[in-house]
Write a structure and sequence with these properties.
The chain has 182 residues and is α/β, with parallel strands linked by helices. The chain contains four helices and seven strands. Helix 1 packs across helix 2 (98-106).
Length: 182
């Protein structure tokens, strides 16, 4: 028997997003959605195309990447966590990067996974995955850095970069999956 006062069961889903900028212009954002925090069970994949994007500005990359990220997240509900390819914040003082802006707009916890050490990102946790000698650099908003590092270490895939981020990178570069976003 269903009671009206009982809250409906909420199923949290986990997303990973990346954006690619083709030499011809525009941007393609890709998102994979998983049923579990390790991204072992992918339940949805989406790609969005933007014909026009802002010019690259050093230290303000979010201005270019945020509109494409918004486009691919449009109509996706129940995300409890989003993993972005890059940093949440750019320095220990909290200068916001892409992940911080996404967290501020959506309220969703965000983990940033960067492949290279940003010169001012001394606050990032270095996480070594698999047999990789080089770490990835993890930052977070909406959860602790320790939780974020543990989640990244546990994500599916034997390589340095988790399979979910490898998948969204491939999807964003594959024009055959492109759909147009407003």
């Amino acid at each position: 028997m269903h009671r009206q006062n009982q809250p409906a069961e909420i199923l949290m889903r986990y997303g990973a997003v990346d954006v690619y900028y083709p030499p011809s212009g525009g941007a393609r954002a890709a998102l994979v959605v998983a049923a579990d925090s390790t991204f072992a069970t992918v339940v949805d994949e989406r790609v969005a195309w933007l014909a026009h994007v802002a010019a690259y500005e050093p230290g303000s990359f979010f201005r270019r990447e945020l509109p494409a990220t918004r486009a691919v997240l449009d109509e996706v509900q129940d995300l409890g966590l989003l993993v972005v390819d890059g940093y949440v914040d750019l320095d220990s003082a909290g200068r916001p990067g892409l992940g911080a802006h996404v967290h501020d707009e959506t309220g969703v916890a965000v983990i940033g996974v960067a492949k290279t050490a940003f010169r001012s990102a001394t606050h990032a946790a270095a996480v070594r995955r698999g047999a990789a000698s080089r770490p990835v650099y993890v930052t977070a908003a909406g959860l602790s850095l320790e939780q974020a590092a543990g989640l990244v270490a546990a994500m599916a895939g034997p390589r340095r970069l988790p399979d979910a981020l490898r998948r969204v990178d491939r999807l964003s570069r594959d024009h055959d999956h492109t759909t147009v976003a407003g």
